[in-house]
Fold these 2 entries.
Entry 1:
Amino acid sequence: MKAYILQKDSQSLDNLCLIERPDPVPGPGQLLVRMRAASINYRDQAIVTGGYFGGRVKRDTIPLSDGAGEVVAVGPGVSRFKVGDRVAGTFFLGWVDGPPVGRRTARGAPADGVLAELVVLDEIDAVALPPHLSFEEGACLPCAGLTAWHAVVEACRVRPGDTVLIQGTGGVSLFALQFARASGARVIGISSSDEKLERARRLGLETGINYRRTPEWGDEVQKLTGGRGVDHVIEVGGAGTLARSMQALAFGGRIALIGVLSGHQGDTNPHPLVMKGGSMHGVVVGNRAMFERMNRAIEINGIRPVIDRVFPFAEARAAYEYQQSGALFGKVVIAI
Ligand SMILES: NC(=O)c1ccc[n+]([C@@H]2O[C@H](COP(=O)([O-])OP(=O)(O)OC[C@H]3O[C@@H](n4cnc5c(N)ncnc54)[C@H](OP(=O)(O)O)[C@@H]3O)[C@@H](O)[C@H]2O)c1
């Protein structure tokens, strides 16, 4: 089979190589999946350059956590799936339900990922795709989709009539927009681009703020909500956005802490959150039970992931380059 690897100690896309490997064989409780599509997350860029939390990849590693495909063989004792089923792998290995206890192994680093023609998944680490989704759409779910679901539905418990703030128009944020709208909420968004805000409006965004033109967007959110603030912030910016997220928050509101787009370090004063009686909830992707609940909601609500561009397998490098170009709106997918 053909597979991409990130070479040990990868520091740049020059370390992304297409190789030939023997076809893997499923063992007991495992599925052999012909991957049909994979998608790229912000995290995958950081893994390429060695800037992810765990440092550089310590061995040649198949990249990308998120993919979808078709079961072509099953190992002994498999009971959850059969040949022909359409599946996606979970982001974390072995996290079926409950809280994120202990250190979890993630696909795409340190465990091998899905940018390969054939991948072996433990059946406990796979879910069925919503029937109405293509493989390309299904490949967007394991990290970006589930993180947004976890934040909006499981952590914030967004209700009809609530107001939700999303940041940027990348993978997690556009899923958050869709899940918040399906929950009956009003959504306000910030973005670097008026054109992207206009596209987001077509997905249900009510009001957009260009954070380049309006760097004090926390004040602007307060004005737009008549001084009440938003009930929930889906916080993907991190240290550079947290102070304004607190400013934008309503009394008793909640911030779902997800991302680090503005960097890892900061010294945000927590006092405004205290005075508002607000709370913060750390979100780390999600477990398989959440993934299955999300897929039911996606099916019932007819939700389709927002795909910006699909690249062919041979052009994986170009897909990575596009994902980090700043032009991104939603997800970048590689068809396999
Ligand atoms: N905790 C977890 O389990 C978890 C899971 C998934 C992702 N994450 C994190 O969540 C973040 C988003 O991931 P992603 O894969 O959705 O990213 P992505 O698809 O690459 O989206 C990036 C987009 O975010 C916007 N952006 C960039 N810098 C910003 C800033 N300072 N303030 C506001 N918006 C900004 C830009 O949109 P505009 O051009 O529209 O401004 C950019 O296109 C990353 O930090 C990632 O590591 C964490």
Note: The chain has two domains: 2-140+305-335, 146-282.
Entry 2:
Amino acid sequence: MTTFDVDAMSHDEILHIGFDDTDSTRGRCTTHLAFKITGYLLNDSDTEFLDYPLLVRLNPNIPLKTRGNGAVCLRVKVRNHKKIIEDITQLIEEGSAIDEGANPGIMFLNGGLVPEAVKEFGRIAMFDILSKQKAEKIAKENCIPYFAFGNGQGLVGSLAAIGSLEDGDHTFEAIAYRKSKNYGTTRKIDVSRVIQYDKRTFPNTFNNYDQNHRRMLIAPHGPDPVFCGIRGESPEVVVSTLEWLQTEEILDGYMVFRSNQGTNMHLQNELKLSAIRVYMAGYVRGKVMRKPQIIQGGHVFFGIEDSDSFTCMAAVYEPTGLTSIASQMEIGDVIEIGCGVRKGTCNRPPTLNVEYIYILKLAQVYALSNPPCKYCTRKMKSEGKNKGFQCDRCGYKDSNAKKIPILQNRDIMTGLYVPTPKSHRHLTKPVHRYGMEKRSSCSNPGSKLIARWFFASS
Ligand SMILES: [Zn+2]
């Protein structure tokens, strides 16, 4: 399906190529297709990459069925637009798992500047649901040719990827790919080397190894083409770390992506409890208004009230490792939570699925204690409801005495609590990255890509 006459495009050489939803749940993967397409583009000596390929993770709360796993955008300077658009569209059609449920979309934005409407679309795609129709409307208004297969749901991610990561925080990932003959076999990675480089490169790489669960985090387990991915703060560190890993397996190659992984980009938007919708992501500031309850499975539920006095239940799931903190919160604690809005069930209204807890202010908590005897200071005993108190030791009675409030120690502290690395989503910001956020992209004119950002074995 095509909508625009490609010949009518302006002759500006810059092309932003966005695509999404090329993969099914088993096998294939959008980043692998990006690796193949990049290889194709680099074979043409006239192609110049203006930025690293972008790997854009969109709102993770949207059910897998209706989103891609990671949208990609390539920003390039090319000569023969028409041929490149035809070839890439063909590569995506052939390389996508369309008969297994993938719904690829591809968009080609011509020109150096990304229109504001496209950037806005990319911003909203981080925390809300956007329709394919809206993506098509914006594409048409901005003369962006697009192609879609299956139900075309991938158009949302395609446009969002083009509009993303122009500035602001970002990270890098060097993803290594396997030779197809090795798909499905065990990935042999020396765990001790992963532990070594994890320590050596800290804080410049992240999510390599989960100390608490003794689990390696760089390699997937499925049959997909990804061998491993090293995430970090610069293209240099992710490439040198990947090279240092010295894997036994002969790989197909690797590529560096610039990404919003590890940035909490989906949680930048403040949610008002009066206006939340299912699958939205963001943060809520408010007060704990219902005491945390631990339910079967160790999950913790509590109520939160925002500044407009709207309330909602929030859920902290056991695997996040945040339940111990959550269970010690008290009514009146002032907190901020990063969260996604989870669909309600027949016996539970929509809940906020907590991704981090920032305790801003602890409430003072009092326990009521029996009053001391005014003669011997011993704690008196209650004579029954509204009947006063009597001292066991000297027999003194006081019918007007009341219980007295005693300030309790709180066993938790204010501060930020983030999930354990094992339960991190792609977008989750690791605790050490707070304060390391980058302000601008490296895609400003004149900045060069490192020499070793792409490698493909022949
Ligand atoms: Zn007494």
Note: The two ends are 34 Å apart (CA to CA).
